[in-house]
Amino acid sequence: MKTPMPHVILISGRDPLEEIGGGHCAYVRAHARAALAAGFHPHLFCVSDRARDVETDFGTVHRMADRGLAHRQTMIRFHAPTLAQGMGEFTRDHPVDAIHGFGVWSYAGALLKARLGPDSPRFIMSMYTVYAVECQAQLDALGHYPWGRERLRQRIEVAWVQRMAAPCEHRAVLAADVVGVNYDSVQALIKQHHGSQVPIRKVHYGPESVFLPPFPTRAPEGEAWLGREGPLYLTITLQRPKKGTDILIEAMARLAHRGQPGKLCIVGGGPMMGQHRKLAHALGIGDRVLFTGFVEDVRPWLNLADIYVQPSLREESGALAMLEAMQLGKPVVCSAIDGLREDIADGITGLLVPPMNSEALAEAMIRMQDPDLRATIGQEAIRSFDRRFGAKVFARDIQTLYGQGS
């Protein structure tokens, strides 16, 4: 008779079946797949408009009905009791080896741990940023955009997060048996904002793609636009202020003005996409920049790309899409910030440039047109990815995190 897999709870917060792009839910799904590979049965808890359990290939998704408020981290104070109640009911009927929260959603785990007392399973919190720092970074990045209304909205959000969400994050950090991080940059932020006593462990991670079949080779919609003149530069992003998409468009304009070949594809939507489209046309390169908007599967575009660019102004941690590019051996040009500079060895696995510098970015993009350099960097990127972000090291660290003491 087959031995049942031990149960673990993952606190996703947002619905991992509805948020199918990158970002928070992609990070959670990747951890669920790592837990499966490590021999656990993951149970992902989220808030939704209606209660329902859904079996998936990465675990069981438990949707907790919580209507009336946006299912966002900003509303964690109101959603956490619903999540804690649902998880508590689950633990009464099932033995659970670990409770694993992600970011500020971990507050629900802190509430559950307090209810269960000494009988609580091991409580782990994964952090890829400090929430208030992330919100402030978005506000700071708006400084070079002519959007007064957006700045006002972001100021309100920063104030709300500092008052309503940041205390929840702090309580979760203090309640956690261990806080898992993937980057030294995040560890420094946690110590700065939550204290040096936090029990932090650095763990390997990777994109969800390390547990999926090989990338599809089908052509993406829009391929005909590319033509065959020069390299295809690609970035995958939620177009928000701190992502630096405007800097990349300015760099592309510099290439065009110097007579350099190539086109740019920006995959992903976001609140700044309209502004960025206008910028590309204003700079005279509207015919060289393709905005795909949201796409369900970015992998065909990654297959097609020659060079991947990550022009972020701030990330706090790393970028999953950039890791997927490395997985495929795509040479990377990225900003020398936060976790990005921990992932890229300059001149070996990619090229690093100072943030908010379109001239330096353009120079690196031109340099990467050299096919020999691209091939060398691409091969080194694959080796680095397999060593640091592959499925085996990811699953091994999850098994250690769930099964052993800190």
Description:
Helix 3 (107-116) packs parallel to helix 5, helix 4 (131-141) packs antiparallel against helix 5 and helix 13 (371-389) runs parallel beside helix 14. The chain is globular. The chain has helices at residues 24-37, 76-93, 107-116, 131-141, 148-175, 184-194, 245-257, 273-282, 299-304, 320-327, 340-343, 358-367, 371-389, 391-403, and strands at 7-13, 41-48, 52-56, 59-65, 96-102, 122-126, 178-181, 200-202, 232-236, 263-267, 289-293, 307-310, 332-335, 351-353. Strand 3 and strand 4 (59-65) form a beta hairpin. The chain contains 14 helices and 14 strands. It folds into two domains: 7-206 and 390-403, Rossmann fold, CATH 3.40.50.2000; 223-388, 3-Layer(aba) Sandwich (Rossmann fold), CATH 3.40.50. The strands form two sheets. Strands 3-4-2-1-5-6-7-8 form an eight-stranded mixed beta sheet, with helices on both faces. A six-stranded parallel beta sheet has the order 11-10-9-12-13-14, sandwiched between helices.
Q: What is the level-2 CATH architecture name of the largest domain?
A: 3-Layer(aba) Sandwich
CATH topology of the largest domain: Rossmann fold
Helix percentage range:
40-55%
Shape: globular
SSE order, one letter for each helix or strand: EHEEEHEHEHHEHEEHEHEHEHEHEHHH
The major sheet is characterized as:
8 strands, mixed
Low-pLDDT stretches are none
Report the span from N to C terminus. 33 Å
- Largest beta sheet: what is the strand line-up? 3-4-2-1-5-6-7-8
Strand content: 15-25%
Whole-number mean pLDDT: 93
The tally of helices reads: 14
What's the number of domains?
Answer: 2
- Find the structural class using helix and strand composition: alpha/beta
CATH class of the largest domain reads Alpha Beta
The CATH fourth-level homologous superfamily of the largest domain: Glycogen Phosphorylase B
**Extended strand count:** 14
Radius of gyration from the alpha-carbon trace, in angstroms: 21 Å
